[in-house]
Amino acid sequence: MIDGYRHKGMRRQLIEELKEKGISDMAILEAFDKVPRHFFLDSSFTSQAYSNMAFQIGAGQTISHPFTVAFQTQLLEVERGHRILEIGTGSGFQTAILCALGVRVVSIERQKELYIKAKPIIQKLGYSPNLFYGDGYKGKASYAPYDSILVTCGAPFIPEDLKTQLKVGGRLVIPIGEGKKQIMTRLIKLGEDEWKKETYGDFSFVPMLTKTAK
Ligand code: SAH
After folding, report:
1. Ligand 1 center to residue 152 CA distance, Å?
2. Which of 17, 70, 124, 137 would be 23's cystine partner, CB 3.0–4.6 Å?
3. In sequence order, what are the residues at sequence separation of 6 or more whose Cβ sits closer than 8 angstroms to the Cβ of residue 107?
4. Atom 14 in ligand 1: which residue has the minimum CA distance?
């Protein structure tokens, strides 16, 4: 895979678009400059890889819109060295953005095909997150507690295990809702049983499914 001047130029344009849409965190914009999104897409999509669009990535799933990735990342308020849990590795693009921000990422994907596909692409970029094939509803207790948890699929409810695995003071960013639209929600864990809930409008995600697929 080649990352040439043309791709870099398209990335700069995308970054301008993200800024116009309200992404102001410089570290996140720099991460978008570092991670070639076209590596995560089928080569037939290369020329559109830097448009603010979602694409099919196999197994009936989609890579999230760049704006959605940037917006969710901003809500996580990551700092270098944080440990982040991501539910829904998908293409691996969001995972790579988090790695580029210097955080330690644990990511879970329930579609084996996608889990297998994402791994070498992320590694090729020099990142080494802990990737797992499994059920995101359970989180990953062996790496807990997390500074932030990110769910990249539409959750019908807030999984209890994710709440438990978050540090006090941490943030759970999760699109909630069944059907076509979900409400982007951020839960801040103020105490073991004390939460602050914030909402950030409608988004559209593929559903968070139960049971692992083959
Ligand atoms: N961050 C990804 C988003 C992919 S779409 C990207 O930008 O490419 C959401 C992903 O969540 C899909 O790959 C889907 O298979 C996965 N998913 C759905 N339900 C899940 C579950 N219960 N556990 C883990 N992953 C799940």
Report:
1. 6
2. 70
3. 85, 86, 87, 88, 89, 92, 95, 129, 130, 131, 132
4. 88
